[in-house]
Amino acid sequence: MGSYRVCCCFTRKFKVTEADPPDDVRQAFNKYSDGGIHMTVEQLMKFINECNGGTVSFLEVERMVENVLHKRHPIRSLINSKSFTLQDFHHYLFTSELNPPIESKVHQDMNAPLSHYFIYTGHNSYLTGNQLSSPCSEVPIIKALKRGVRVIELDLWPNSSKDDVHVLHGRTLTTPVDLLRCLRSIKEHAFTASPYPVIITLEDHLTPDLQAKVAPMVTETFGDMLFCPKSGKLKELPTPESLKYRILISTKPPKEYLEAEEDKRTGSRRAKETTDDDDDVWGESSRAMSYRNKNDKYESYESDNDLDIEDCEDEVMKSDLCPAYKSLIAIHAGKPKGGMDDALKVEKDNVRRLSLSEQALEKAAERHQQDIVRFTQKNILRIYPKGTRFTSSNYKPLVGWLHGAQMVAFNMQGYGRSLWLMHGMFRANGGCGYVKKPDFLMTSEPNNEVFDLKAKIEIKLTLKVKIYMGDGWHLDFKKTHFDTFSPPDFYTRVYLEHLLMK
After folding, report:
1. Given this model, what pLDDT does residue 397 score?
2. Residue 56 gets which letter from DSSP?
3. Of 99, 125, 218, 240, which sits most exposed with the smallest number of CB within 10 A?
4. Is beta strand 434-436 parallel, antiparallel or unpaired with respect to 151-158?
5. Region label for 226, one of left (φ > 0), alpha (ψ between -120 and 50) or beta (otherwise)
6. Which residues of the chain have pLDDT under 50?
7. Given 90, 91, 116, 123, which residue is catalytic?
8. Active-site residue 498, yes or no?
9. C-alpha–C-alpha distance, residues 38 and 492, integer Å
10. C-alpha–C-alpha distance, residues 147 and 192, integer Å
11. Whole-model pTM?
């Protein structure tokens, strides 16, 4: 009998029953016990090695049998009987402590370019809560790295006296954190959960003088861990295997960033002068752009990496004064001039990173779905949450993944099913933070055709999952056991295992 307490006064009892072994378990037991009523240590060892493809030793299996018998039959274990009944075998198979899921380890090919992988990506990694008023800290960065996140985002802004660099969400009430604290935290915890590379994406709002100050700060903190291409821009992205225990910087080069800021200012002026309702190429209507410019406080939400500096024209002339900062950039970012066709153009001897908001991706996917897939076969596409997610909520990541986007950036300090799906996705491949993209996203037809989401494709494989039992379902509860003071609290855990039974 089992019991649990209600209102600290009464004790309710329930009867513990054990579920009967399903037919598959009976068949396996009969096969490996040669039709007997007991399974010996040798027979169990044969079952484990053949079905799980392992090489478990006799001593390991013997200790496991003793453990089960001691727990289930304390008296029988004293008479040195080392064999399983059908019920013992069933108990062993469905007890996670005795028979855990297949060991989690890196099993995918890690020698392909970075563009061939989905990467565990954080958004505004320094925020402890909401996007408007929560404090900034290195603590959420540490938590993300310990979970296995491989892309950390930092927003760099000048302090009030313009002589130092802070990390904060600009034009909001968030309190800043010192950049050096963030960098040191990344160095200390970058490879706690995974040896594969950490990419730091910088949303840079700094003057050339402050960029020149950041450069030695980064190089002195990371030292040899920092990966800096010798030839400037990369022609092809390196592999995760070749970048083990390395840290990469990804942002706009200084000159491109300042020119982009000038383009944004010019575009904003045009938006104020027009009443045209046509959407621009990045998925925002000109009316929305005009509205945003009337509300500068929220501008940074909608334009990740669209930056703002006063006297931009003068700064462009000075942008070559910080070559040390530019040399740190391993993966160059930026939105090129022109429309979406130009943004998704694949260059032969150059790779880059492009950032789109979740809405911009959905809009681009309507007319440029194959262009996006083709772009992500060589380059990096980063998707970030829309600006109205003030509470640090997230979006559906599948849209980005189905188009080959490597960096589907999430608010790791957020909540909800989308975030659970993100965490679940990156438990794959040993939880290393890199999951190989499926072949259909990386292959091209002779006419340069790529995967088309809208095309009807014949089903090639159907996965069927059979649930045998759940923990707690064998308890003999009655309806009267549950009321206002003792609500049911069940959950289901499903393990998928590949059984090689013939």
Report:
1. 97
2. -
3. 99
4. unpaired
5. beta
6. 1, 270-303, 305-319, 497-502
7. 123
8. no
9. 31
10. 9
11. 0.77
